[in-house]
Amino acid sequence: MSILELSKKREAFTQDIHIKIGVKDSIYSEILNENRNLIVSLPKDYQSSNKLYPTLFLLDGNETSLLNTIVITRYLRADIIIVAILNTDRDRDMMPLSTPTYKVDNPGAAHFLSFLEKELIPHIDKEYRSNRQRTIRGTSLSGLFVMYAFLERPELFQNYIGNSAGWYADMDPFFSDLADNAFKNKERFLGKKLFVANSLVDSYDPNKEVHLAMLEFAEKVELELGANFSFKYVTYDNYGHVPYPSFYDGLKYVLGDN
């Protein structure tokens, strides 16, 4: 076989394995004063049906995380619209505060949350057949944002998944006050689900500050919200930062198969 023939076979093979994982979309945000790029993955039967679908908002939504999410949702047979939100300034968007542990020049989580509420969610509901049943998922820093969003705007999403989520000790006063204020209005959390996962051998949490904060948070949730709210905190001791099974376990939990 000649080099030219081999080259053509390789090219044909490469073309054969190209997979379309979603459609590119974008929205200009007046709140953030920038364009935000999205990749939207639609259920397999979306074009041939008139059904409405739940929506999963994927933070840190690059192509790799989207592909992994597609695999998991299909394995769980979850027909769901996935909205992967690509980052522009991750520290700014995910952090609601700056502390010595994690310094951020312009923490802007409040603005990013407003972007989700006032611009992105209405855009998705208008352009795609959403049934308004929404899940948000974040990992590590974006997992912290999921916790912030849950406490600040629990009505925005039905389900919250934070993989390697929580906060360090010097962030605890901020989040404790946020939780105390949020739980004064308990009806906002009726029917909501929150799944949080962390590793017990996480190199980013060597003193287990995040884990201890989540244990205290779990006690507060049980005391304040009780049976009116579904919450699960899971730890893994054989995976490092962002335990690999944690998204599968989280999505399975919030979809109802507890």
From the structure above, extract its key features.
258 residues, alpha/beta, Rossmann fold, eight-stranded mixed β-sheet, globular, Siderophore_Hydrolase_D, Esterase-like, Esterase
Short description:
The chain is of the alpha/beta class and 258 residues long. It has helices at 3-16, 63-75, 90-94, 109-127, 141-152, 172-182, 209-224, 246-254, and strands at residues 23-29, 34-41, 53-58, 81-85, 130-139, 159-163, 193-199, 230-236.
If you had to describe this structure to a student in words, what would you say it looks like?
One of its GO terms (molecular function) is hydrolase activity, acting on ester bonds. Keywords: Hydrolase. InterPro entries: AB_hydrolase_fold, Esterase-like, Siderophore_Hydrolase_D. The chain has a single domain, classed as Alpha/Beta hydrolase fold, catalytic domain (Rossmann fold), CATH 3.40.50.1820. The protein is 38% helix and 21% strand. An 8-stranded mixed beta sheet has the order 1-2-4-3-5-6-7-8, sandwiched between helices. Helix 6 links the parallel strand 6 and strand 7. The longest helix has 19 residues. The N and C termini lie far apart (56 Å).
